[in-house]
Amino acid sequence: MNQAVLTTIAISGFVVAFFHAAIPTHWLPFVLTARVQRWSSGRTIAITGLAGTGHVIVTALLGLAVALIGAKVSETIGTWFPRVAGGVLIAFGCYYLVRQVRGHGHVHFHYPHEHLHEHSDAHQPHRTSDRTAILSLLTFLTLSPCEGFVPFYVSGIRFGWLGFGFLTAVLSVATVGGMICFTSLTLAGVSRIKLAFLERYESVIMGLLLCAVGALIIVFET
After folding, report:
1. How far apart are CA 143 and CA 162, in angstroms?
2. At residue 126, what are phi and psi to the nearest 5 degrees?
3. In this structure, are residues 186 and 44 in contact, taking their beta carbons and an 8 Å threshold?
């Protein structure tokens, strides 16, 4: 049953991370910056992947801190830990649901290029240095970790370092893969895809999944 629980946690975490990566703020700034800087598609995708990797690393470091603290708590309370871990996930889930109800479905950092629109060549925004543009993109995304995935590290504590590594791999594939996917589609001209609703309802998706995983751990791990 432990393996089934870990698989469910991984699938749920993948969904959260992928939906998080699909939010326009995670790929639109790269597309708009590429237009201003006149980058090739290959270079834009490479920079997107690099920024996504930084995003994953910061999220994983937060997850590591949570896992280390949780491991100490697990040693102290023993068999009660699944109940505590499940309760923490449900609490996080309820927090996201309440945030959705209050109209704060997603909070993100605003990047200056995020609101650029297409211009004619005569009105094209001034280019900045590539180094400045790249550092801005990397900083913008690195400083906004996928907070919704961190609670999944709590649920993976009982699976040790193997579970931590597995969840980090899931986070990496979902986040970097999702960002590259949507950036590539937009660069290819598939601009009719409307993903704004994901930004609007991100919190309710994460909240429901976290509550479900928390309940699963309490039922099957106690």
Report:
1. 27
2. -65, 140
3. no
Helix axes 196-220, 81-101, angle to 10 degrees: 160
Residue 130: band (very low, low, confident or very high) from pLDDT cuts 50, 70, 90: confident
Note the pLDDT tens digit of each residue in 96-123.
788 777 765 554 444 444 444 444 344 5
How many whole angstroms separate alpha carbon 30 and alpha carbon 44?
A: 7
Cβ contact 12:209 at 8 Å: yes
Longest dimension (CA), the chain: 68
Query: Do residues 163 and 6 touch, judged by C-beta distance below 8 A?
Result: yes
pLDDT per position as a tens digit, 5-52: 788 888 888 988 998 888 888 888 898 888 888 899 999 999 999 999
Query: What are the structure tokens assigned to 49, written together?
Result: 């992947």
Amino acid at site 4: A
Coil, helix or strand at residue 71:
helix
As a three-state string, the secondary structure of 168-197 is HHHHHHHHHHHHHHHHHHHHCCCCCCCCHH
Which residue is it, tokens 């209050």? 102
What is the rounded distance in angstroms from the CA atom of residue 125 to the CA atom of residue 84?
Answer: 52
**Is 210 in contact with 153 (CB distance < 8 Å)?**
no
